[in-house]
Amino acid sequence: MTASLTLAGLALTLTILWANLRPWWTGNRDPKMLAAFGKGGALGVLGAMCTGGLLGWLAGCAPVAGSQAGSKAVSAVTGTQSGTPLARGSLSGSLTEEGALIVFCVAVGVVIAWRKASKEDKKRMAGGMYCGASLCATAGIAGALSFLPGLVNDAGEQVRAAIDSAGLL
């Protein structure tokens, strides 16, 4: 999908982000409080790098769904229609085969964590996935994270080199 996140979608995304970060910030700032949201967020960002497949599709749907829901919410609260798109950015199209291995392994790890998570942690993970994918659809966040595909690809190449040098592949 090529739809941009709208200003109203950004409002919804930032609300979800705030709802997850505020308890941590006002509490004892234990990193464990952010674990579920962080796992989901990481998968959302990695999904934004995928050109297709389930993760790529979900990452493409996030800004569309968020923009529609945000528009309804902003309109219901303020009476003003909001559909102004933000500048579009993208991380997709730069994963190598080795990088895809890393994304796949992270996705499997998050799915396993999801299955064992409480209902509240599942909500946090879903919110993290949405926020990660939606924010990566904006030019500013995609630009700030432009180093990430190379980092993921390099990690995959290191795994391959380690296995190749051991004579296993």
Task: Please explain how this structure is put together.
The chain has 7 helices and no strands. With 169 residues, it is mostly helical. The termini are far apart. The protein has helices at 7-26, 35-48, 53-78, 97-116, 119-135, 139-144, 148-165. The mean pLDDT is 93. The relative contact order is 0.21. The longest helix has 26 residues, at 53-78. It is globular and about 65 Å long. It has one domain (7-165). Helix content is 72%, strand content 0%. α2 (35-48) runs antiparallel to α4.
Helix run count: 7
Helix content: over 70%
Give the uncertain stretches in residue-range form. Answer: none
Sheet bearing the most strands, described? none
What's this, in brief?
The model has no long low-confidence stretch (mean pLDDT 93). Helix content is 72%, strand content 0%. It has helices at 7-26, 35-48, 53-78, 97-116, 119-135, 139-144, 148-165.
